[in-house]
Design brief:
four-stranded parallel sheet; single chain; 2 domains; Rossmann fold; 13 strands; 442 residues
Length: 442
C-alpha cells in the first residue's frame, strides 16, 4: 500500500480484516477455470513443468480470504502493463522457484523492469538459486548476478523481505551484499497450504507395491535406475512433469531433443514406461495429490513431484541432484540422498527402509509459524489464522478448483494406437479435401 506521499508503507497483521483488497498473483494458469490437457500443452500453461502448479496453487489457496479478490496474471505481466497493475491492484504476489539461474535471466529482467514501475507492494514467495549439489559454485551465477541484483533491489523497495527457498539461497544473497533482515528463509509454500499434516510410515516394498517414480530426463543416472525398477516393480508408474513428455503422451511424437538424453530415461514414445501405458501426467495439482494418496511410495529427482506425494500422506524420498532440490529437502527435513552417489541398480526398498519422517512432522509447526510471520510482515492477507469467514473463502476456492479440474491423468498409450489415430486423422483430412473439390466443381 502507499501513504499520502506515495511512498510504500508496511501493512500490519491487524490489516487482515480491513478493507477489501485486490491481489494479482503470478501463475501460468488460473485453476478455477477449466482447461483441457490439449490446450494446456499447446499454450504451455504449466511453465514447462507441472511442478509449478503445486506451489502456485498452494499460494493461491492460502491467500484466499473473505476480503481478498485474487486475479491470476497468466504469465502475461509485462513492463508495459505497469500502469494498469498500479491502477487495478493493491498488491502483487509472485511465487517463484529456481529463478536465480542463467537460463531465466531474460524473464527475470522483464520482471525487474515491471516491478521498478510499480507503486504497489510486491511480495516474492519461495525464490531460489540453482547451484551444484553442494552449493559451492556461486561463480556459475556471475552472468546472472546483475539481473539478480536489479530484481532484488526492485522488490526490496516494495516489500519488507524476500521469501527464499532455503539456506543455500540465503548464503548466496548474503555473500553478494544483502542484509539478514531483507531475507526470509521460508521453504516451499506448497507444504503449508493444509497446515500441519502427517505422512504415513512406509510399508516394506514387494513386487506388488504401487511404486511411483519421478524423473528429470536430463539426469542420465536416472536412466539405469528407472530401467532396473521398471522390471523390479511391475506396478511402478512414472509421473512425468515436463512439457515435452506431455506432448509426447498426447500426440505420440518424440520430443525434438530426444537424442540428447540417456536412452534408458523415459522420454520417447517407444520407451518402456510410455509404450506400456505406465506413464501419467497431471495438469491439475489436486488430481495429482488425490491419485498419489492411493500409491505406496514415491521417489525420484522431482522435488515437487515428491512434495505432492507428501501432501497426499504418501511417503516420498528425494534423489537430490542440485542445490534447489537439496535445500528444500534440508529445510523441510524430507528424506533424501545425493543422486550422483547412488548405484545404477538402486532399489527404492533401500531408501524407504531408512526413511525417517520424525523431524518432518515434529518441526512443521515451527516452519508454519515462520511462513505466517513472513506473510504478516509483508502485509499479505492469508487464511492461516483460521477466521471463520476465511474458512468459507477457502471452501469456495476449493469448490471452484474442484469443478474445473481434469479428474484423470493424461496416460500414455502405445505408439501403435497413436499411429492408428494419425492415419485416421489423415484419412479424414483427405476426405474433407475431396469433398471440398467436389463442392467447388458443382
Amino acid at each position: 500500500m502507499t501513504d499520502s506521499a506515495g511512498s510504500l508503507t508496511r501493512a500490519s497483521p491487524g490489516d487482515q480484516a480491513s478493507t477489501p483488497r485486490r491481489v494479482l498473483l503470478r501463475s501460468h494458469r488460473d485453476l478455477r477455470v477449466a482447461c483441457s490437457p490439449t490446450v494446456i500443452a499447446q499454450k504451455n500453461l504449466i511453465g514447462d513443468n507441472s511442478g509449478n502448479t503445486i506451489f502456485t496453487h498452494a499460494v493461491h489457496r492460502v491467500l484466499s480470504t473473505a476480503d481478498t479478490t485474487i486475479d491470476v496474471d497468466l504469465n502475461r505481466a509485462r513492463p508495459d502493463s505497469a500502469a494498469r497493475i498500479n491502477e487495478t491492484y493493491d498488491q502483487y504476489v509472485l511465487p517463484f522457484a529456481n529463478a536465480f539461474r542463467p537460463p531465466f535471466i531474460k524473464r527475470l529482467e522483464k520482471y525487474a523492469a515491471l516491478i521498478e514501475q510499480l507503486t504497489i507492494p510486491v511480495v516474492i514467495v519461495g525464490v531460489g538459486v540453482q547451484l551444484n549439489f553442494a552449493g559451492d559454485d556461486p561463480e556459475s551465477l556471475e552472468v546472472a548476478r546483475p539481473t539478480i541484483d536489479r530484481f532484488m533491489r526492485a522488490v526490496l523497495a516494495r516489500s519488507a523481505s524476500v521469501g527464499l527457498r532455503g539456506e543455500t539461497t540465503y548464503d548466496y544473497l548474503r555473500s553478494i551484499g544483502y542484509a539478514d533482515d531483507e531475507l526470509s528463509v521460508i521453504g516451499c509454500p506448497s507444504l503449508f497450504q493444509f497446515g500441519e499434516f502427517r505422512v504415513r510410515d512406509p510399508l516394506p516394498l514387494t513386487r506388488k507395491s504401487r511404486v511411483t517414480i519421478n524423473v528429470s530426463p536430463y539426469q542420465p543416472r536416472m536412466g539405469p535406475i528407472t530401467a532396473r525398477n521398471t522390471q523390479r516393480y511391475p506396478q511402478m508408474r512414472y509421473v512425468a512433469q515436463d512439457l515435452n513428455t506431455l506432448r509426447t503422451i498426447l500426440y505420440g511424437y518424440d520430443p525434438p531433443n530426444a537424442s540428447d538424453y540417456d536412452p534408458r530415461v523415459p522420454y520417447r514414445a517407444n520407451d518402456e514406461l510410455l509404450k506400456r501405458g505406465r506413464t501419467d501426467f497431471f495438469v491439475d495439482p489436486t488430481t495429482w495429490i488425490d491419485w498419489l494418496s492411493n500409491r505406496d511410495v514415491s521417489f525420484g529427482t522431482r522435488i515437487h513431484g515428491n512434495i505432492a506425494s507428501l501432501l497426499a500422506g504418501t511417503p516420498a524420498f528425494v534423489l537430490a541432484h542440485d542445490s534447489r532440490t537439496r535445500e528444500l529437502a534440508d529445510y523441510h527435513e524430507i528424506p533424501y540422498r545425493q543422486l550422483q552417489a547412488q548405484p545404477e541398480d538402486l532399489d527404492p526398498r533401500d531408501l524407504f527402509e531408512t526413511a525417517d519422517y520424525t523431524n518432518f512432522h515434529a518441526n512443521q509447526r515451527q516452519r508454519l509459524a515462520v511462513y505466517k510471520a513472513f506473510l504478516d510482515r509483508n502485509g499479505v492477507r492469508h487464511n492461516l489464522t483460521a477466521r471463520p469467514a476465511d474458512r468459507a473463502a477457502v471452501e469456495h476456492f476449493d469448490a471452484l478448483v474442484e469443478a474445473a479440474r481434469n479428474r484423470r491423468p493424461v496416460t500414455s498409450v502405445s505408439p501403435t494406437r497413436h499411429e492408428i489415430r494419425r492415419r485416421r486423422d489423415e484419412a479424414k483430412q483427405k476426405s474433407r479435401a475431396v469433398l471440398r473439390k467436389v463442392n467447388r466443381a458443382r
